[in-house]
Amino acid sequence: MRHFLTILAHEVRMLLVSPSTYIAAVGFLSVMGFIFTGILEAYSKAPQELSPASVFFEIYYFPAIFMVPLLTMKCLADERRLGTIETLLTTPVTTAEVVLGKYAAAYLLFWGSTAGFFYILKRFAGDAHLIDPGPILGGYLFVSVSGLLFIAIGVFASSLSRNQAVAGMLCVTMLVGLIFGGQYLANAAWMEREALSPLKAAVDYAQVQQHYQDFTRGVVDMRELLFYVSGTVLALIFSILSVETKLLHS
Amino acid sequence: MTATPIQPAIEVSHLVKSYAGVVAVNDISFTVPRGEIIGFLGPNGAGKSTTMRILTGYLPATSGQVSICGFPVATEPDAVKRRVGYMPENNPLPDDMRVSEYLYFRGRLKEVPRRNLGSRIDEVLELCDLKRVRHKIIGKLSKGFRQRVGIAESVLAEPPVIIMDEPTIGLDPHQILIVRDLIASLRGRMTVLISSHILPEIEMTCDRVLIINQGRIVAQGTPSDLRREVLGQSAYEIEAAGDLGSLPFLLGSIDPGLSVASEGTPDALGFRTIKLKTLNPEDTGEAILRACLSEGLRVRALSRAHPTLEDVFLAATRRSWDAVAEDRVTPGQS
Question: Which pTM was predicted?
């Protein structure tokens, strides 16, 4: 795995020296900050039931659906389009190292920097009841765990096409399917049939929205963690296989 | 780890590669000894790039055996990749990196020890005359510089075998000269396999030439061997004036195989161009000249026509097209 670190360091370096990263970061943080300010305004007008943190994390799917494809769509699609995958794979590097290195680099989420919002709130509001550590920790834990799977899906989508736009669209579709599809299926009438009960159980298990609520309430369920971790492993294995199959038919 | 020095650098036997029913490489076998520079020629779509990709372990072969320095590509791809420096067709490079950064990254991937990497990068930058642009962004470099970055990258880890797919494509004559010298400077230290369309290029740099067409090797050997084998004759051109009637008899007395191939029309001064051909590979120019002068012919010029590799290439590929055409006419015999 020595090449994994080389590729990871290279990818991170490329992110850090590229101006577009900073533009995207500033844009993302402004949007998130705007939303956060909106939440705080609502709190200043009337008392609310939930803590600001849990309301803030309710929009977790917003960066998941927009930022994940933008971050990942380039990683493998661009290598294939430029042909640099050929020079990359003719060095003593395995496909797994390439995919994992790029995955790990993309996992450096912008979300982490939103923690600053709560620090600023605490520093200037000085109002302890606005800061509830449970939902904040649960929220960030959820973001980091579900991010594993979302980014892996993005990498997989990128391995399927040499066109970045197609990879991005595929990723958005798969993420929307994962985040909202489960809820839709669980509420569908035809799922209530006796014969489909195992399927129904599986769909109930894969409710991303439900997982989010559990996490922010402080309930960390091993089954839910396993759902994301196993999904991540599967998506990464499929990405590696996809890159290798494309070589066979190139 | 170390292979015995007797083992050839590249050994290919009965290599076949087919894509979805189309046979790109059809039963190719060849051996390249260490330290040799070998040129790979063929028309577009002949299977050059496919063969090179299989040699690097990037593509799997359909059947046949390939080994690099004694390591079979199919079972020990890692050992092979450590021993091959490869520059693909069109030389893909990342556009958003600086030259020295790119070489550093590639050096790390190729397992050059971090300790030696800095000095090694300096060496290849010097070798490829890239020092001036080491801090430039690759995407902003001209084609010639990009090409040299690709070459620098392929020799970076000092691999025993270097495979370059059309290294001189798109370069101006001056840059071609630099690249040619560069490749020639590797002679003896590294085994180099290059493919090219520019035939004089191959002729000047390579010790041996392989010509492939339609996935088969149609000719191989040193450029001079190939001339003899494929064209099988030497030719002379003489510009003379006077009575040419006795010429065939005269020629026969020098060399029984020597005959007049064509006779031009006389120009204003009465000189005409006569083309002679023979199967004899030795140079009989002096004897021809002496015979002509003794017969009272006025000779203005005599030259021995050197068939270029281009002629060889065209003849060899034409021959293989003919063979394919025959196969199609009599399918039972192939």
Answer: 0.81
